[in-house]
From TrEMBL:
UniProt-recorded name of the protein: Uncharacterized protein
Organism whose genome encodes this protein: Amycolatopsis pretoriensis
Domain of life: Bacteria
Membrane-spanning parts: 30-50, 56-77, 134-156
Keywords linked to the UniProt accession: Membrane, Transmembrane, Transmembrane helix
Length: 164
């Protein structure tokens, strides 16, 4: 049986705010490390799956591992984002209660960021797309290509082999 934590009637002080802000930063750092590490693993698995001299079993194993890693990566990516957003909203609520408005976190900061011109040339229009959504789609493409390579490996394995 889960025991509920004891609740204190005192409002959180600056030290709690600092601790939550630090945790939010950690979630944000972890959030973007996950896809970067996954890309390295995916590159290795695709080099195995697409090697012209790879055996069919090696291709199948590499594709199944790629599918697994993609699923695990997307799950961890979403969980880190969930933690980061939870803390950002808590921090914004704290700022509103303490200072009368959100200053540096949550929806207030997000609106300010989105209203700022990135001054990135042709890439400026890309800033309208949420990074989490874009990276999730990009990571999901690994699953699509893994399935394609897996099917080819089973149905027409010679298509991926080096011609003599």
């Amino acid at each position: 049986m889960k025991q509920e934590p004891e609740r204190l009637d005192l409002p959180p002080g600056p030290e709690v705010y600092a601790a939550v802000a630090a945790r939010r930063n950690q979630f944000d750092s972890l959030l973007w490390q996950v896809p970067a590490l996954s890309l390295a693993g995916q590159a290795f698995l695709f080099s195995v799956a697409l090697a012209p001299d790879a055996r069919v079993l090696a291709r199948i194993v590499a594709c199944v591992l790629s599918l697994t890693i993609t699923g695990l990566t997307l799950h961890l990516f979403a969980r880190h984002r969930q933690g980061e957003i939870t803390d950002a909203h808590w921090l914004e609520t704290y700022e509103i209660e303490r200072y009368g408005r959100g200053l540096a976190h949550g929806r207030t900061w997000q609106s300010n960021r989105n209203a700022t011109n990135a001054d990135a040339g042709w890439l400026t229009s890309w800033t309208r797309i949420g990074s989490f959504r874009l990276w999730s789609i990009g990571l999901s493409l690994f699953s699509v290509f893994s399935v394609v390579i897996l099917v080819i490996s089973i149905v027409a394995p010679r298509a991926l082999q080096r011609s003599p």
